[in-house]
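Page 47, continued from p. 46.
Same chain as before, 429 aa.
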Amino acid sequence: MKKLLPLFLLGSLGVSASGASAQSLTKPEATLVGTVTKQLPETMSFLEKVVNINSGTLNKEGVRQVGDLMGDELKKLGFAVEWVPLPDSLNRAGHLVATRTGKRGKKLFLIGHLDTVFEKSLPMEPYTRVNDTTAAGQGVNDMKGGDVLIIAALKAMQTQKLLDDTSITIYMTGDEESSGGPESRRDFIERARKNDIALAFEGAQGLHNVTTGRRGSSSWTLTVKARTGHSSRIFSDLGYGAIYEAARVLTEFRRQLGQEQYLTFNPGLIVGGSSVKYDDKTARAETVGKTNIVAESALVKGDLRFLGEAQKEKARAKMREIVEKSLPLTGSKITFADGIPSMDPTPANENLRMIVDKVSRDMGLGPVGAVDPGSRGAGDVSFVAEFMPCLDGLGASGKGAHSIEETLNLKEYPVLIQRTALLLYRLTR
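Result:
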């Protein structure tokens, strides 16, 4: 027999008493929701602890430290925990994997990541409670908030003995923000394929949206060489120099490709001068130049985001065509590297969205729709999207990801944990 959620829990859900009649939770589900609320102080304390550890992708020690803390929590919940190391040549920390094996319900593959975009060389932005509805800090929603959300939902389930006989694999990668390449995802893909459903906990876009499709991401590098000499001879026998040539290429990229739906390309780094050096391990560039010397070298590094392999390959072909039309006495070369494939919206993903929608309506929160694939960047879930139904955007909500203004929505965070706990419970029955 189904019962309404007790009114004393409505405040934690962000709904009014007038919405109680819309709720349709069983007694175990209502108890599960209440358990999340009771455990919230511990959850927030743990979130603050991990946010205050720098875990930029290239800070291998920091990534591992966060992973060890997550692993300790998962061990307490009965998961077998291991660390998947990567070759030293990849300059990445590795991945955290936690597993439970049972026979009840669907086999779930839950995806998080331990790293952030904030490298150790950047100023540290600690966890700060801005006000009653907002917290700030590096990775507070992307995606330490999502990782802690997973653990909090599972902790509530374990408290109510609802994890017994379930099959759940939690995979938190150490290099989602800057992947070490195909070798770094080999184990990830192999383990995922043993499961029925993949759920990823990148940042939520509010309570009423999830991600059924998202773009892929690859990288590109533009290198330019030109004749050098006294600046008074530019535009004549020395040609145009490397910096003007780099500017030409970027302008044509924007002009010819900038209006295509779902396609974006961002030049995230550019340097030019008499000489250029770039260190992949630290993501640092150095250049030397003078105003009266025509620039001999230029370097641009960027990303390319797309929906589907066809769009990616078409864009690359056009970019190569633009690069080949160099200014006089300059020469440009562009290379591409695959990163994360796209996650195409599928009927199977849509069916998963409908399950989340039902959970949300039963909680009295209203409907849950699918966001425009173009509104999301790439994510680890895309590596396994061709093998099973997937959803993303199930994590923490907030604003300003990848910036010093990154925030977490404290009003929605408890509700998202509760929704996840109920979702996992229903999928594993």
